[in-house]
Amino acid sequence: METAVRTHAMLCGGTGCMASGTMKVKAAMEEEFRKKGIQDEAKVVLSGCNGFCAKGPVMAVYPDETFYQDIKTEDVPALIEEHFLKGRPYQKLTFKEQEKKTSIPSIHDIPFFKHQVLVVLKNKGLIDPERIEDYIMMDGYKALSKALTLMKPEDIVKVVSDSGLRGRGGAGFPTGKKWELGRKISSDEKFVVCNGDEGDPGAFMDRSVMEADPHAVIEGMIICGIATEAHKGYIYVRAEYPLAVKRLQIAIDQCYEAGLLGKNILNTGFDFDLEIYQGAGAFVCGEATALMRSIEGKRGMPRPKLWRSAVKGLWDKPTVLNNVETLANIPQIVLNGAGWYRSLGTEKSAGTKVFALTGAINNVGLVEVPMDTTLRKIIFDIGGGIDRKGRKFKAVQLGGPSGGCIPEAYLDIPVTYEAIEQSGAIVGSGGMVVMDTSTCMVSTAKFFLEFTADESCGKCAPCRIGTRLMHDLLIDICEGRGREGDIELLEEMSDTIISASLCGLGQSAPNPVLSTIRHFRQEYESHIKDKWCTAGVCRDISTFCINEQLCKGCGACMRACPSNAIEGEKKKPHKILQDACLHCRTCVDTCKFDAIKILPLSARSANEADLQYYANAGEGLVESNA
Amino acid sequence: MTKLTIDELQKIRDENRATFTLRKGESRAKVTVHMGTCGIAAGARGVMTALMNEIVLSGREDILVKTTGCGGLCAREPMAVIELPEHPPVIYGELNEEKIREIFREHILSGQPAEKYALALGSETIF
User: Fold this and answer.
1) Could you give the CA distance from residue A44 to residue A62 in angstroms, rounded to a whole number?
2) Assembly ipTM
C-alpha cells in the first residue's frame, strides 16, 4: 500500500556537523526507520549548514519543528521510538538553555534561532543542497525568470542600486554602482566572478552559503550576467573547501542539464557559462585583482588600482566581481523589490549580514541578522554569552586580519558599516571572534600580524617588510623586551604601511594593532613598563602565585600542572614552586576559586615572603584574570 | 532532466508542494494520531498507514500528519485529532482502518466532521 511521507528529518550536512558524524547518524536513522517499518513515512534529508555548529550533529524535524542536537548513533533507536513513532520530543537531545537547564524543543523558541532574520540563509536546513528541485520548490530561479522576461538590464541594475545592497566581502562598496559600471562599458567580452576565497581566521560564512544553498549563488551570478551583458562566469573557491566545491559542481551540472546554464537559458535566448576555479589558499587571492591574476593562471598578486575591475579586470576585460553572500542576496532582491530589502537594516547599511560567531562563546555558529542589530544582542542573546563561568566579556574581533577589536563600551552599537568603522574595526566578511577576560590584547594583535606578515605576497615593501617589523616589535613587547616609545613606533609604522601599501591586505594589516592600542592602551603600557601581562598569557613575563585566602586546597591545580610545580596538603593553601613553574597558565584555567594570581616579571626575583604578600594582597594591587 | 522553460519551473514548484508544506508548516489540515503504547496496542499503526494511503489516493498535498503520545483516554484508543483552520479540533476515538478512511473523506475532503465517530470538540483546559 502506497503511503505519503509525513515527516522530514533535516539532518545538517555542513562541514562542521559532517565532521561530528552526520553520515553515521543518517545511516543509523535509516536503518531504524526500516526496523520500525516507517521507512515510507519518514525521511532523512541531508541539509546544508544549519548554523548551530557548536552542537553538531544537529537536526530539525518537520512539520513538528523540533530541534535536536549532539546526536550520537547510540541515541538513534530511542530517538526514533520516541519522536517518530510515539510523537513526543526526545528530551535527552533537545536544546537546553545553559543556565536554566529547561528543555525547549521547538526551533522557534530557541534564542539562537529566534532573533535571526534570514534572507541569504533562508533555505538553510530546509532544502537538500544537492537537489535542484528543492531549490526550485523554495521559489528558486523565480527571480531569474523575472529578470529574463520582465526586466531590462537597466531595471535589474536599478533594483540592486535602490536596494542599498553593499559588498558583503568586507569593503562595503555599493553593489549597484559596480553593476552600473559593468553594464555601461562596452566590450566584446565581459565576465562575472564570484569571490569565494574566504580566508579570515574564524570566518566561515561563505563556505556555509556555498554548501547549504549553492543554487542561490549561481542564480545571483546569472542575473548579474543579464544585467551587465556578460556571458561567462567564474566561481573562485579555495580548494580547502572540498564540500563547497563538490556541492557547487553538482549544482552547476544540474543547471546545465536543466537548461539554466549554457546556451538559450530557459528558452529565452540568453547564454551564460559558469565554471569553478579552485584557489590554492593564499590569503591575498581574496583581493580582487590578485584573484583575477590567479584565474588567468598567473601568480596571485595584486596590481595597482589605476582602473576598476568593472572597466579592466579578468584578461583586461570588464569584470564584475562580487562576494558569495552579496550574490546570494540578489535573487531575493530581484524577486521582492528594493523596498522590501530596504525595510531591513538602516538607511546606509540595508539588509542583513551573516556572521560567523566563534571564540569564547556558548553558541558557536552561523547567524544572520538585520544590520541594525546591536553587537550585544548578537553576542549575548543569540550567542548565549561567554562560555566559561566567572569570566567576562572583554572584546569582540570583527573583520579578521583587516579588522579590529571592539571593547565592551561599544557593545550597543549596531553592526552597520559606519558604526563599526567608527569603533576602529570593520564589518569585513563577517568573522566575529568573541574574547573573554583571559585574553591578552597584545598577543591578539601579535597573532593577526603574524598572519598578515605570513600571507603578505611580497610584491610591495611596506607590507612585506613593515608587517614583519611590526610583528617583531610585538614579540619583543610580549617577551619583556618592550621599550618606552614602542607604542608610538607601532603607530608610526602603521601609518606608513597604510598609506604606502599596494592593496587592501597591506592597507588594513595594521588595524588589529591600532584598534587594540586605541581601546587597550593600558595593556600595552603594562607590558612595556611593568613587564606585566595581566591576563597571564605572555609566559615570559608572567609570574604565578597562589592567594592563600582564596585557595581551598582542592588540589585541582596540582593535578593539572604539567611540571609538578604545585604542592600542598589537602584543604590547606597550595604553593607554586617558582623554580619549577613553566608559566603555562594551566593552573589559572583550572582553578575554580580565582585563587591563582598573575604577577609581573619582577615578582620572580622577589623573595618568597614578598611574593606571597603580593599574591595575598587581593584585587587592589594585583588583578587576576582581568 | 530535459531543458526547462519558465512554465516548467513552476510545474516543479507545484509538484513539490507537499514537501514545501511539510517543511514550512503551512497546511490546510492537520491530523494528529495518538501513538502512545495504548494507541499502538489498540491498532494505531494500521490507522496511521491507512491514513497515509488515503492522502496519496486523494492527491492532496496540504495535509500534515503528526504523531503524539497517550491522550489519557486509553480505553477509547486508537484516537486521532483533526484540525482545520478556523475550526476547533475534533477528537475521534475507537478508530480502525475503515473508520479513518471514512473520516478522512468526510471531514478533511468535504469539510464535514464525521459526527458518529467523534468523541469531543475542542481541546482540554490547560492551566
Assistant:
1) 11
2) 0.76
